[in-house]
């Protein structure tokens, strides 16, 4: 979704909640779109934004605005539902599942996180899409599947496989972190950042000297994603020791 389109949608939902007293929500937003939503709502004075994605630690989330009568803590969030797939004689991939659901004529924002665990798959989606998928999916990739509609509460969070990465930097700059995380020369890392290929906490960042901290998520287009876990140790040579993890 383009940022201006998202801004207009958020204003519409906020107005609907205030004036009509109805709950309003978007589809599932990417982490970058969530950052836009939070920043734009702060700037526009749109109070009450709630980001919700079902399972804890979900990556894709819906943006909700609630009227005064509604309690976000006890709200059922029945705008979404889960789907459980059991594969026969094969283990589908995330790409297989996403492609099969999109082939039903569904837009990407209607689908939340997908958890692939061997021959079993769970995903969350807008309720009409979840019903369609549960009724229609018979094959995912090369595997036949049995599909059933489930409550979103039964959908587990996706398991992210990572490997540890350790390196040292002279200072906590983005280009230095990109170099260490993705095993690039400093010049290559600076070029990647300046060329718009790097995102910091899900937003494109073209400042090689942007400061990094523990918890930051860094992605390099075409190479993957990683997270800074700790960066508070100092080596004997006075360099900063960085502990990180990289998605595999």
TrEMBL record:
Keywords: RNA-binding
A GO molecular function held by the record: RNA binding
The keyword RNA-binding is annotated on this UniProt entry: yes
Ranges for domain RNA-binding S4: 172-229
A family per Pfam: YlmH_RBD
Name of protein: RNA-binding S4 domain-containing protein
Species: Candidatus Ventrousia excrementavium
